[in-house]
Amino acid sequence: KQEVTQIPAALSVPEGENLVLNCSFTDSAIYNLQWFRQDPGKGLTSLLLIQSSQREQTSGRLNASLDKSSGRSTLYIAASQPGDSATYLCAVINYGQNFVFGPGTRLSVLP
Amino acid sequence: DTEVTQTPKHLVMGMTNKKSLKCEQHMGHRAMYWYKQKAKKPPELMFVYSYEKLSINESVPSRFSPECPNSSLLNLHLHALQPEDSALYLCASSQEGAGELDTGELFFGEGSRLTVL
Lengths: 111, 117
Fold this sequence. Notes:
The complex is a heterodimer. Chain A is built from no helices and eleven strands. By secondary structure, chain A is an all-beta fold. In chain A, a hairpin with a 5-residue loop joins strand 4 (about 30-40) and strand 5. Chain A starts with a strand and ends with a strand. Helices cover about 0% and strands about 60% of the residues of chain A. Chain A has strands at about 5, 10-15, 20-25, 30-40, 45-50, 55-60, 60-65, 70-75, 85-95, 100, 105-110. By secondary structure, chain B is mostly beta strands. Chain B is about 0% helix and about 55% strand. Chain B is built from no helices and eleven strands. In chain B, the strands form two sheets. In chain B, strands 2, 4, 5, 6, 9, 10 and 11 form a seven-stranded mixed beta sheet that branches. In chain B, strands 1-3-8-7 form a four-stranded antiparallel beta sheet, with no helix packed on it. The interface of A and B includes residues 46 and 98 of A.
């Protein structure tokens, strides 16, 4: 059974810092991995989708990498801003299965 | 248009009420999902519809009844709920159905915040 963990559970940084969020999964035979952002009381916003054949994806200040063999993905946020404060979730999907979500990392970027 | 629309945004109901949550997408996606999310927890899958047919029911109590009238619409009918059913209910869609090799990006709506008194 696929299990997804995220480290750290919470993170507080001053504005302008570069930061890394980690996602680990136990079954490396994933089809794709998706990073989401969730603001309090809101739905999930898709940030980046990495398919199993890809190693990384970039969107603006965000870069996500995938290492299937080690069961890890990282989300790199450059030059963090207070508006980046949210919960970040990763989700993986295996062939013939549904998405499995990690517990999320709560990020606070302080002005 | 990458939008999934959910109504209502907020719903308060008593334990004897019958209400419905609605979800709509116009991206041509053939898979639609209902998730339940409690505070500070990740979303939990409830139901999956693939090509308008219920493909997955994650052992959800019968007081939750899903319906997919067409490929763009998904409803969740609520009856005789309990206070512990209070949560954020999220609808999502993806291009292909569950179990298909082409399962792609998952798109979520803003959610319906349900409070059961």
